[in-house]
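Notes from the 1:1 (GR / supervisor)

We went over the backlog. Supervisor wanted to see one worked example end to end before approving the batch request, so GR pasted a single chain during the call. The sequence is below; no edits were made to it. Supervisor asked that the structure be written out right there so they could see what the output format looks like.
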Amino acid sequence: MTAAYAYQVRDPRGKLLEGTVDAVNADDAAQQLRREGFQVLELKQQGSADDPLFPRRITRAEIIYMTNQLAVMVDTGIALSTALQGIISQEQNPSLKKVLQQLSNAVEQGDDFSAALAEHPRLFDRTFVSLIKASEATGTLGAMLERIAQYLRKELESRAKVRAAMAYPTIMLVLATGVTIFLLTFVMPKFTPMFASKGTNLPAPTKVMMAVSDTMLHYWWGWLIAIAAAIGGFIYGRRTDYGRQLWDSVKITLPLIGPMTRKVVISRSVRTLGTMLGSGIPTLDALKLAGEVSGNWHYEKMWQDVGRQVTEGRQICEALQGHRLFPPMLVQMISAGEQSGKLAQVLQRVSNYYEQEVETSLKAVTSVIEPIMITVMGAVVGTIGLALLLPIFSLSKPT
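Structure output shown during the call:
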């Protein structure tokens, strides 16, 4: 019994071809293709477990672990293709295993490792690819892989700290929303018939809550449409240049959240800039990448402006002087680094300092947000409870 096998091969002239072949097993399929003069790059049975409908996601932690493994193996003198095959043999994630096999095939065919990585931009961003490309020119791939792993680990830790700090306020917000919906759609309707039968003049808060409860019960589809439209509009708006500019402006100007966000963005940009400059990346390329990884429209434009001024002969500290988005103290430190010729080291120390500042800011913001959320939740629940109790007090009064 034969099965269909999807293949990816190169013909004798080096052209990449894809298609399917019927064979008894994978070895038979490979032999058929080799007899026709093709070099087999990839071969898998269609509909097999190796090609699931919903492939397993590749996490950032897995990329870091793989990079660290590769750094150790390459640094000990193992050839890159052999190191990749060694990692493939132990990899448990089918999706990552497939990517690694593609990288190994490309390297074995003589392609640059950086070029192979660039074929997977979702997993290996421009910073990753640029650093690998620089190491290929200097012959320091092992050391560079280790530096990349450290860089990615710090990025992951920084993001994890922000998510962990925001977890409690998010849970409180979800609970407050859930309790409000429960009171308005389950508790309030139980009292509405009683209020109507007594024929009393209801207080204004009660009338408002009853109206909201009625719309949630009878026009729930309208609420769903409104929520879906709001979410869709927000997502679409963020994809536009003006929407992204507006949202990023809000993030860095909000009370409490704004200062912390600015520190996170600065830490990310400065760390990238220091890593790139310390790895031999040209200054203009490093500045461009520092803006791209910042994750904020305004800081990205700032770094682009710095790059333009550097092309005109100015130093980085001069371009940043007096900029509203950049702290004067940091500009002075960059100036000292440029004058001493140790800018990369200074930027790394600044990045470490800002990471500590971010952690301190996270604790401060969380300590302030928690009582605010509790107060808001109490006010919402209290208002609904008061709307229920006011008519009862009126009915209980002697006439």
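Supervisor's comment: The first strand starts at residue 3 and ends at 10.
Batch request approved.
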